[in-house]
Every structure is written in structure tokens, then in C-alpha cells.
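Human: Here is a favour to ask of a fellow structure person. Comparing notes only helps if you start from a blank page. I am asking you to supply a protein in sequence and C-alpha cell form. Write it directly below this note and I will take it from there.

Assistant:
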Amino acid sequence: MKYVILVGDGMGDYTYDELGGQTVLEYAQTPYLDRLALKSAVGLVETIPEGFSPGSDVGNLTLLGYDPKRYYTGRAPLEAAARGITLNKRDLAIRCNLVTLGENFSVMQDYSAGHYSAGQIQTEEAQLLIAKLQRALGGNGLEFYAGVSYRHLLIWRDAPLDPEKLSLTPPHGIPDQPIRKHLPQGEGSERLRDLIERSWEVLRGEHPTANSIWLWGAGRSPQMPTLAQRYGVTGSVISAVDLIKGLGVYAGLRVINVPGATGYLDTNYAGKVQHALDSLSERDFVYLHIEAPDECGHQGRLDLKLQAIEDLDRKVVGPLVTGLEKRFQEFSLLVTTDHYTPVRERVHRAAPVPFLIYRHKLPSSKGASGFHERAAAATGLKITPGHQLLDMLLNLL
């Protein structure tokens, strides 16, 4: 048996008058998903446990079968793993965004420093800014690591604090809001606040949009058993996002880097599907992650989120199922999302999200009218806690 998990990041959403009272997923033209839903087990899954922030880190950790209450330590250590950065027991990894702040260090104008605008920040110029920050602010246990575009890391070696007592706000959670009350709070926060404020002095005038850093997602290295140790399955992970790749590293999955994978509407969908199918020739399992719906939700663009969902259906679901049917006698496919990213709010929200599990040659006799929030709720099937959904996919639940 081959197993596939396809995650459309942030697909969940609310209803909109301009969509006739439907959600984005409900309104979007998704014939391949809807056809699968007729023959699948369809329901809702709680990906964000109570008390956790509704981030992709927690949501995807849940979907990979790990209980966040037991295994979650923060977002940044996962991204560090994806980049091959070794963390010792006392080291603290911290996500470091390049951002655009309003005049006089005031408002979060853009959590991505213009990444999705005409003046988007390029990786090469971002690397120069991170190198400048390392020279000006690094040392004494602080190490800045350049990533891609606006996404970077700060490693605080032998950090003398308890990260659970440190309060950090994701920059995408405060669009167009004053930043002062959202600066780091709690144990060790003074040094981090100082770094953000000093970065404003270092970066102003260096780039048209990137004028500060923002620190969030801190944590130490998690201790997780691999999926092979837990279930005896081997697998791969395919994503444009370091967070997901890092989760794959800790889960013991092979990370497949697809050329042209961007995490946005221009990503290499065909390449992702082809690599997923090829990986299943050697392994039991593939985790295929599509980031674009989430990014479009953060932009507040209803039209673009509709496009992202319709692209996922046409460019991923359709060819993926066709390829699976041609190449494998037996397979099970789970399609879901990790959280809501409502267009009208532009931030993540925790809510039970729809899922379907399609078993080739063993179609469900019940099914649902389509793949969206309303149809999933109507079946009455709900998986709580959400990390048990993997057990259901593997026929263990």
C-alpha cells in the first residue's frame, strides 16, 4: 500500500457575501476534489489543540501524527533542521523575518518586506542584509543565518532562559497594527527587543522595503521518534517551505527539493507531482505540501486564494490521482489543510478543517457532496485529537 498526504496550507476560510454565502473552498471550481469526496471518508479534523497558536508548525505536526502537547517546541528549530544547522541542547533557534515597519518604528506594514509586491526582496540582497546584521549585532552567542527572501534564522547559543516563558508574536499575525505591544515579552525578552530595535538602526536606508527584523517562533530542538520507528513506514516530504522540510527531517523522511518550488502561485506544481510519484516507487509514504493558499490568505486577496485552490485541484489533485492509478495497485490519499487563513482577517485561525481519505479500489459507500467545510461538517465525522488522523489513513483507527 502507498500512502499520500496532500496539504493545501491555509485553505480553510469563512463564508463571504460576494461568494453567495459560500466559503472560498466551497465556491472554488474543484471538480477533482469533489469527485474524490463522493467516494471518500470525509469529515473534520482538529489540527490545532486547545491552547496552541494556530500556526503551520502545530497544524502540520498534527497531520504527521505527532501530538503537539508532547512534541512541539517551536517553529524555528524545525527550520534550522531543514537548513542543516546543528542545535545543542541549550541552543535556542528563533525565526528572523526581514519586515517593513512604518515610519518611526511604528506599524507592521509588511511581514515579508515586500516579498509579494512588485518590489519584492530577492534572496541575494537579503543575504547581504543578514551578513550586515551579523557584523553589527552578532557575536556573544548570537548567529544570524540567511535563508530565502524574507525568511531567516537567529541562533542563540546556550540561551539562559526557558523558551516557554518567552512570548513572541508572529509578524503575519499583526498586519497594519502598531508593533510596540507585540515586541518580545517575558524571560529573556530584553535582549531580543534590543536586537529588533537595533536592527532598525542598522537596516534603515539599506533596502527599499526591508528596514527591520522581527523575531518569533523560538524553540529548542524537539525529541521525536521517526515515522519508521512508530509505524514501520519509509517516506518523503515535498515542500517549498523550510518549516515543513524540517518536520520531515525530524520525522525521518527524505527531503525532496523540487526545482522551481516557490511556495506561491508560480510554484512548479508539475514537478512536485512528478517527484511525489517517483518517490513512491522506492518508499511507502509521501507528504506533499502546497503553500500558495495560505500566502494568498495573508495578502487578503480573495481572487488569488480562489486561484490557488483551483490550481491545487487542477494541477496537483488531477494529475496526482491519475499517476497513482497508473503506477500503483493500491494507494490511500489524504487531502486536507492545516488551519484557516481567512482572507478578511489575513491571519491564521484555529477551527476544525475538512479532510478526505480516498482508498483506491475500496471507495467509501457514504462520501460527501463536495470537499469543503460545510460538506465535511455535514457527515458528522470528526477526528479529535487531530494527530489520530494519520492512524486513520494507515488503517490503524
In short: The domain at 2-72+225-393 is CATH 3.40.720.10 (Alkaline Phosphatase, subunit A). Residues 97 and 214 are 5 Å apart (CA to CA).
